[in-house]
Task: structure prediction
Amino acid sequence: MHEKKLTVIGAGLAGCEAAWQAAEAGAEVLLYEMRPLRNTEAHRTDMLAELVCSNSLRSDELTTGPGLLKKEMEAAGSLVMRIARQSSVAAGSALAVDREIFAGLITEKISSHPRIKVVRQEVAQLPDSLTILATGPLTSQPMAEEVARIVGSSSLYFYDAIAPIIDADSINSAEIFCASRYGKGGDDYINCPMSREEYEAFYNALVEADTALAHEFEEIKVFEGCMPVEVMAHRGVDTLRFGPLKPVGLKDPSTGKTPYAVVQLRQENRQKTAYNMVGFQTRLRQPEQKRVFRMIPGLRKAEFLRFGSIHRNTFINSPRHLNSDLSLKQRPHVYVAGQLSGVEGYIESAAMGFIAGINATKRLSGKEAVVPPRTTAHGALIAHITKADPDVFQPSNINFGLIEQHPDVVRLRDKKEKRRTMADIALSHWAEYIYKALPAERV
Result:
């Protein structure tokens, strides 16, 4: 059998998942990662699959889009999901990980695979050989220019923001309580309760705070699912109380009542030495973050291990430029994976890496790609990024609204029953897909 070689550019979640799946299917993989030779404005280490925005992989419940997508990935032998389980930290009904353990284990697994060679080098041009492009939302300028040259003016962008991380020792335990919403998962979150007066003072300070603007000549387009907290606040005084500061499902044990608003902190590592401010992605300047966020009960003397920040995310107009197997219409030997393909979120990025890795390996073997049905979470994402209206396209997380409803589901009226049925059908159809898509010895 002739040697099967594949190039993967970018070693984030998508690139690592793609490289792993291809190598496990028998391909010889060259995995390029530009860090640490060239860093980005958001990464802090040289480890593969470093998580920069949050340590949460979102809901683990099967009747949510992220929960279903994760279940499908696990059924297919996803490396990212296996390592996520091994590095998990308490997060109620969500799956969150210790970032350092997660990235360390991924780096170890990828680097030690006999059919994967990691090359620490920036790639500025797409090769003529079979390639998976997974450079992510922080694609370097030379590669972004290369992609723009191929897809033309349809290359799009939006701005993404990341949340601050707080030193656990600086949190005032007398002003907080520990609990998960509705009691799911135990006392996994630190909750900072706010009275009406405290909330209104915080809100007024937030909307008046000084922000770090992007380049003045660029229009700021912010992804709805990762909205900076101050942008959300400008939509109305109660917007935050129905969003990241919603008190629903929480009771302050010191009063026995539901607070007016609640700021939640999520465990960042297993040592519980650091906590992430849930939903507090921000573009506020650092002095303003100190001033405004220290108005929150429990955080009045907060020490910031990482400030929130804003950075540019790059993605292509995928409905215009991607085939259903994730190959570029203009360069069919190039597959696009991860957030560059038009999905949003860690798990979604890894899922597209999985699909690209499987399809590229099939091409190496001279076989036809198999596209998962739209009744599955993977198939729904692929349909969104390849079939949506290109004139109004925006990246999306996975959600049940994207999943095609089987006729057996349409007649159901109860929302929970409908989602459970959709999840059952999705997993059944996904099992049929992986039987066709994966090598026989891996099914």
Notes: The chain is about 30% helix and 15% strand. Residues 5-155+316-442 form a domain with the FAD/NAD(P)-binding domain fold (CATH 3.50.50.60). The chain has two domains: 5-155+316-442, 162-312.
